[in-house]
Design a protein that fits this description.
192 residues; 29% strand; single chain; 2 domains; Immunoglobulin-like; WIAG-tail domain; three-stranded antiparallel beta sheet; mainly beta
Length: 192
Amino acid sequence: MNRARGITRIRRRRAFRQHDGYHKKMTIRETSANWSDVEDDGGHVLTDDTIRASHLQHRSVRSEAIEDYAVHSIHLSSESIISSKLALESVHPSHLSFNPVQGIPDIPLLQQFGYIPFTFSDELDSIEVTIPLQTPYQDEHYVVVASCSDPLFQAGIRKRQDAEIVIQIIRPEDTMISEGGLHWISIGRMAT
């Protein structure tokens, strides 16, 4: 096909090339752009489904080729967003499905808890249970709450350090119960 004939067909807004079957998808069609520019740049666009992923070179599509707001949640694979991809302070309590520990703003808090079984010997009316903390606090100024599995026992804080707590458990003299469990919870400033 000569060039003059091709331009004539373009001006009549027809495809200058038509193929049957698979190649029909690769037909080049004219644009409805300014027809005076047809001889300079060809004025052609590719039809839908002409370019496939196999035609693209690795890393040929860059971020500037993606429209704003073009990526939606359906385009993200499961577990594709990990903690390293989150900006600092981008997750707030309103984003969470649970109520986090809340305290003084801008102070990171740490909450720990546990259960420790204990046993009294026959001659003792009080024992001390040492709780090693898995993560130490910034200092000894944190809150500890302790209770026993049986209401006859009384638990009280004897010593509080940044890495351990000592709880004293007292049982009444006239009771024969010698075993129980200590439930505890602590919250305070996280060590930096």
